[in-house]
Amino acid sequence: MLRSILLLPLIGLVTRSVAATPNISAIFGPSLSSGAQIFLPSQANYTEDVTQRWTTYDAPTYIGAIKPATVDDIQTIVTLAASNEIPFLATGGGHGATITYVNCTNGIEIDLSNFDTISINATANTMTVGGSVRFEDIIPPLYDAGKELPTGTAPCVGLVGATLGGGIGNLQGLHGLILDSLLSVELVTPSGDVVTASTTENADLFWAIRGAGANFGIVTSATYQIYEATNGGEVMSANFLFPGSANRSVWEIFESFDDTLPAALSLTAYAGFNQTTQEMELIVSAVYYGPKEEGVPYLASFTALNATETDLVMVAWPDLIDSMAFGADASACTTGSYLNVWGLGLAETNVDTYTTFFTELEAFAQAHPDYTGIFVVDRYSSEAAAAVPANSTSYGYGYRKINSHLLFENSYTNPSLDGVVNAFMRKSRAQFQRTSGFSEMEIYLNYAHGDEGPEVWYSPQHLPPLSQLKSQWDPDQLFSFNYPVPLA
Predict the structure, then answer these.
(1) Rounded distance, CA 8 to CA 153, Å?
(2) Which region is the signal sequence (predicted)?
(3) In the chain, which segments carry CATH 3.30.43.10?
(4) 287 — phi, psi (to 5°)?
(5) What is the pLDDT of residue 323?
(6) What is each CA distance from 212 to 143, 217, 234, in whole angstroms?
């Protein structure tokens, strides 16, 4: 059975790389607070003490890590790193996957683990969190307060990091993208200053970070609008396991929802080749935020396919993630795997393209026994997201109308496969693009591979003003490893 899912990213930031290896203890230690910690890779517990990256594919390299204890510490680190020309990346959940990180070599990781506070104001319907808080941290207290906020489906992904790239998930049909719920942030800028950004304060910066945030600073805290829990926080979770031979019928059902998916319903398909059984498998996970008697009729077409295995339960929201895909997503939070990620956004479902790719994926996996990748289709309602004006945030113009988010999660242990995997992915992505319903490539930023370029990441409409703001706020391009915005 399939055992991995991705919901991508975190916060990422940078400076220039250097030839010599600096002594970071000597450079930073004297200026940091007593609560800050410096870690070197040579230390025995480095991997336990420092947040590790979800995938090692083209990962950045570090000469050490610093865990700041205060906002002043972060200001100090940014300022000293810049003056000493030391590259840096700030880490929240650790789910960064873009290949653009490869340019960050011999840098420092700014581990935000100490910024983990959560404060809920149920009366005002707001929640303020620290920069390292993850989805799994906020769901239980929100549920206990009778509230909810859109999240992704990998529990260990950083809330702020996912927000800055957009933030998709099961609740977006009701509440829009995660970034649509963002009210304000406290940010350490490239100059080392601390600023607040909202629609009323530094509004231009607030526009920019909602879609391209990793380019403009380190978010130390963020405030979100929260919502009354749908159906009292009780959710219907249904899973279907199909043999590979049923894939065309499954894609036809997905196509039938292209214009009719209810706001409270989401569908996710996971397809992959089981190297043990030498067979393709296909899981469909359906989530409905409402009573069982309302949700079950929407799944009649899947039920009629006579799945090999079926599971349908009502669960409390905090238990939802564990119930999805027969609980097969545990490895979504396993760090240190070699995962080569690609993605694409679709406006419509072309059954022939899906079926052809399914067959080609099977042949590719059979030809490469070390390959255990999966293909994920996230089908969320775009109703609430599309209702938000396209120019209100820097999230790609028109990308709010994406109906299906494709994620190609290529897992293998032998890096010599990089060339053939990338060639296969490039061809497959192009096939889907031709029948995507979009004239140009459109993609959820957190699912991008990194080779698409700024016009795809941010759209031709939003890139020019983003470049102007980049020139204003980060003219030295200190924050330019994570889907970099070019200067104007």
Answers:
(1) 10
(2) 1-20
(3) 24-111
(4) -125, 130
(5) 93
(6) 30, 10, 34
Report the sign of the C-alpha dihedral through residues 456, 111, 57, 378, in that order. negative
Structure tokens at 232: 């009292």
- Give the Cα separation of 51 and 134 in Å (integer): 12
Q: Would you place residue 329 in the very low, low, confident or very high pLDDT band (cuts 50, 70, 90)?
A: low
* CATH architecture observed for domain 24-111: 2-Layer Sandwich (3.30)
Right CATH for 232-454 from 3.40.630.10, 3.30.300.20, 3.40.462.20, 3.30.450.40: 3.40.462.20
Please give the Cα distance from 84 to 5 (Å, whole number).
Answer: 39
Please provide the DSSP assignment of 229-290 as one string. PGGGGEEEEEEEEEEGGGHHHHHHHHHHTTTT--TTEEEEEEEEEETTTTEEEEEEEEEESS
Does domain 118-229 fall under CATH 3.30.465.10? My reply is yes
- pLDDT tens for each residue of 126-149: 999 999 999 999 999 999 999 999
| Nearest residue to 131 via CA among 113, 153, 148 | 113
For residue 98, is pLDDT > 90? no
CB 396 within 8 A of CB 457: yes
What is the percentage of the chain residues whose pLDDT exceeds 70? 94
Give residue for tokens 């209702």. Answer: 387
Section 230-241 average pLDDT:
98
pLDDT at 100: 67
Q: Round to whole Å and give the CA distance between 447 and 408.
A: 9
CB crowding 292-306: b at 16 or more within 10 Å, else e: eeebeebbeebeebe
The answer to whether residues 160 and 11 touch, using CB atoms and an 8 Å cutoff, is yes
- pLDDT, average across residues 399-404: 96
Give the dihedral sign, CA 60/63/67/68: negative
Q: Over 90: is that where the pLDDT of 223 sits?
A: yes
Q: Find, among 166, 170, 155, the residue nearest to 379 by Cα.
A: 170
